[in-house]
Design a protein that fits this description.
Helix content: 40-55%
Radius of gyration: 20 Å
GO molecular function, one term: DNA binding
CATH class: Alpha Beta
Number of strands: 5
Keywords: DNA-binding, RNA-binding
CATH superfamily: RNA-binding S4 domain
Strand content: 15-25%
Shape: elongated
Structural class: alpha+beta
Pfam families: S4 (PF01479)
Number of helices: 5
Distance between the termini: 44 Å
Family: Belongs to the HSP15 family.
Protein name: RNA-binding S4 domain-containing protein
Number of domains: 1
Length: 121
């Protein structure tokens, strides 16, 4: 499982893919998947990453990591998953419009107060 997730470019390293499996962020047919689980063509996977939540069907297998164009041929994302990710991205973009930008850079005094507030020094 971890090797396929790495080869399909959902994670940068196999260690990150294995950790995601251990944390329960990868599900195969609705059950949590272990890093050593075998992946077969036709499996439905639910993958939670920093980039969003994916629901994919496995189309092919690969033992090595290749270019992104080749990695994309290993799976097919469901339409519902694509719509949900696009909706979440639009919501994040809309929230940025409501957050006021600071009028200026923090001064040295402001910066020290920020560090102190965050628990530093």
């Amino acid at each position: 499982m971890d090797k396929w997730l790495w080869a399909a470019r959902f994670f940068k390293t196999r260690a990150m893919a294995a950790k995601a499996c251990d944390l329960g962020r990868i599900k195969s047919h609705g059950t949590e998947a272990k890093p050593a689980r075998d992946v077969k063509a036709g499996d439905m996977l639910q993958i939670k990453t920093e980039g969003g939540d994916y629901e994919v069907e496995v189309l092919g297998l690969s033992e090595m990591r290749g270019p992104a164009a080749v990695a994309h041929t290993l799976y097919r994302e469901t339409d519902a998953s694509k719509d949900a990710r696009e909706k979440a991205a639009a919501e994040r973009k809309a929230m940025q419009e409501f957050m006021p930008l600071p009028e200026r850079r923090p001064s040295k005094r402001d910066r020290r107060r920020i560090i102190q507030f965050r628990g530093g020094r």
